[in-house]
Design goal:
By secondary structure, the chain is mainly beta. It contains 1 helix and 10 strands. Strand 5 and strand 6 form a beta hairpin. It is globular, with a radius of gyration of 21 Å. The structure holds FE2/S2 (inorganic) cluster.
């Protein structure tokens, strides 16, 4: 006599793990809570750590003229933190970002080095993708490989 199909088998199948609201886009890329837009006034910055390809990378988010941008805190001249004074990235009254080691200047909106050591000029800071939802800033690890 053939066995009866177990009608409850379908109910026993493991369910996919629940996603925490705001923790993932559903495509497998994790995003990280950085802060609240209300805490980041124009000309201000916040530093945060985020895993990038298995290692914690220091990053920073800025409010440049009302728009939010984030970059890995890694100068394109020498791969070291740009803020000799902690969390001080803006220079020239908030017009540029500056690496305080050898005074490389970067455009805040694009991350392009426009003045500084010749081997840094023209290079871009590594952009960190941001998402802003209901006044909360989330960051995703950059997908591009670091050249240095
Ligand atoms: S390390 Fe940034 S300008 Fe030299």
């Amino acid at each position: 006599m053939p066995e009866k199909p177990d009608r409850r088998a379908a109910l026993k199948r493991p369910r996919p793990p629940r996603r925490k609201r705001g923790a993932s886009d559903g495509g497998g890329s994790v995003r990280y809570l950085v802060g609240r837009t209300a805490d980041l006034k124009a000309g201000a910055s916040i530093k945060f750590l985020m895993p990038v390809r298995g290692a914690d990378e220091e990053c920073f988010v800025i409010n440049f003229r009302g728009r939010f941008h984030a970059y890995v805190n890694r100068c394109r001249h020498v791969p070291m933190a740009m803020d000799w004074v902690d969390n001080q990235f803006f220079a020239e009254e908030g017009r540029y970002l500056m690496c305080q080691t050898h005074n490389a200047y970067y455009e805040p909106g694009s991350g392009e080095c426009i003045v500084g050591p010749p081997d840094a000029c023209g290079k871009m800071l590594y952009r960190v993708p941001l998402e802003i939802e209901a006044g909360t800033i989330y960051a995703r690890p950059p997908t591009e490989e670091f050249e240095d």
